[in-house]
């Protein structure tokens, strides 16, 4: 059995299609198809089936997935044997929402590249809702995210340092739009957000509902930078991690609106697969995440 075929199998799952897997692996599409056929012949199993226009994993494919992951992990472990005492190479894949990448992980990434300059560092930004799935599917080794609870049983999620949330608005807001403490209000502004299912967003929504403060329909954007720019232009207000707006608050481009949630801290977590072999590359990242973000890996030892 050629492990390259197993890598192709996993890449199809990570990318979502044969064509995208071929592009990522720099193969011709026919090569990917041929490799999967070879696996199916070796295993005497159908691994994919066509559902509508998409290729989906069969039940048999789902059943053998843990074994494929274990084979590839063991292969990687052999290739990395004793590399901790030599020059560290290999791949490390990180995933996080863009707000965390932009404002929290920059020094972490810099430290990883300094301490292990020869590894291939793959970085992906995705919505907070997709971080767990990236870890479960094997598309990423480590994820950093806000703690939303309800984690899959297959992942570990040691805590990182907490962050403050804050409600922000434009300095152009009129005085009667600044009050978010008095109940029973109907305000001619809407909420702007890019992480609608984050725990801090749910908290502000619950707070406004409890206070009976009614806003206009929300605006949903793709990035924290788009949210900030829209708030600066007085298109609405936003509840965001305070670390993402410190600079704008200091220079007066944004203002903090007082609420009953001021001072409330939200936990963050480091997410990785429970059954994944902790490679030397991951160990470097774990050490740096502990040093810089206070991630407590000992709280969920394998």
Describe this entry's structure for a reader:
This protein is of the alpha/beta class and 302 residues long. The chain is built from eleven helices and twelve strands. Strands 3, 4, 5, 6, 7, 10, 11 and 12 form an eight-stranded mixed beta sheet that branches. It starts with a helix and ends in a 9-residue tail after the last helix. The model has no long low-confidence stretch (mean pLDDT 88).
Q: What is the straight-line distance between the termini?
A: 30 Å
Q: Which whole number gives the mean pLDDT?
A: 88
Unreliable runs, pLDDT <50, ≥5 residues? none
The largest pleated sheet is described as: 8 strands, mixed
Strand content: 15-25%
Q: Which descriptor suits the 3D outline?
A: elongated
Total DSSP helices: 11
The secondary-structure element order is HHHEEHEHHEHEEEEHEHEHEEH
How large is the radius of gyration? 23 Å
- Provide the helix percentage: 40-55%
Structural class: alpha/beta
Question: What is the number of beta strands?
Answer: 12
Please write out the topology.
Layout: H1 3-15, H2 18-25, H3 29-43, E1 48-51, E2 54-57, H4 59-79, E3 91-96, H5 98-103, H6 106-115, E4 120-125, H7 131-137, E5 142-146, E6 155-156, E7 159-169, E8 185-193, H8 199-211, E9 213-220, H9 224-232, E10 238-241, H10 246-250, E11 255-257, E12 265-273, H11 280-293
Parallel strand pairs: 3-4, 3-5, 8-9
Antiparallel strand pairs: 1-2, 5-12, 6-12, 7-10, 7-11, 7-12
Overview in brief:
Helices cover 40% and strands 24% of the residues.
Descriptive keywords:
single chain, 12 strands, two-stranded antiparallel ribbon, elongated, 11 helices, 8-stranded mixed β-sheet, 302 residues, alpha/beta
């Amino acid at each position: 059995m050629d492990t390259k075929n197993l890598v192709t199998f996993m890449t199809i799952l990570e990318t979502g299609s044969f064509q995208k897997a071929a592009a990522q692996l720099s193969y011709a599409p026919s090569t990917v198809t041929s490799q999967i056929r070879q696996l199916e012949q070796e295993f005497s199993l159908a691994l994919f089936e066509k559902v509508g226009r998409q290729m989906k994993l069969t039940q048999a494919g789902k059943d053998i997935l843990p074994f494929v992951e274990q084979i590839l992990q063991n292969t990687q472990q052999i290739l990395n044997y004793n590399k901790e005492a030599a020059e560290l190479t290999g791949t490390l894949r990180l995933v996080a929402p863009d707000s965390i990448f932009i404002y929290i992980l920059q020094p972490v990434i810099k430290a990883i590249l300094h301490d292990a300059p020869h590894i291939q560092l793959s970085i992906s930004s995705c919505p907070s809702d997709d971080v767990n799935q990236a870890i479960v599917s094997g598309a990423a080794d480590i994820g950093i995210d806000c703690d939303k609870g309800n984690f899959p049983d297959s992942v570990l999620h040691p805590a990182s340092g907490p962050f403050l949330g804050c409600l922000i608005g434009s300095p152009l807001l009129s005085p009667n739009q600044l009050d978010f403490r008095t109940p029973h209000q109907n305000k001619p502004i809407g909420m702007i957000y890019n992480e609608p299912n984050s725990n801090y967003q749910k908290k502000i929504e619950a707070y406004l509902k409890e206070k009976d403060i009614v806003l206009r329909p929300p605006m949903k954007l793709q990035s924290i930078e788009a949210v900030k720019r829209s708030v600066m232009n007085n298109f609405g207000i936003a509840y965001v991690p305070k670390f993402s707006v410190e600079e704008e608050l200091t220079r007066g481009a944004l203002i903090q609106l007082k609420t009953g949630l001021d001072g409330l801290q939200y936990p963050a977590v480091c997410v990785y697969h429970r059954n994944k072999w902790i490679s030397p590359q991951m160990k470097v990242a774990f050490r740096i995440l502990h040093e810089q973000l206070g991630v407590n890996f000992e709280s969920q030892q394998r």
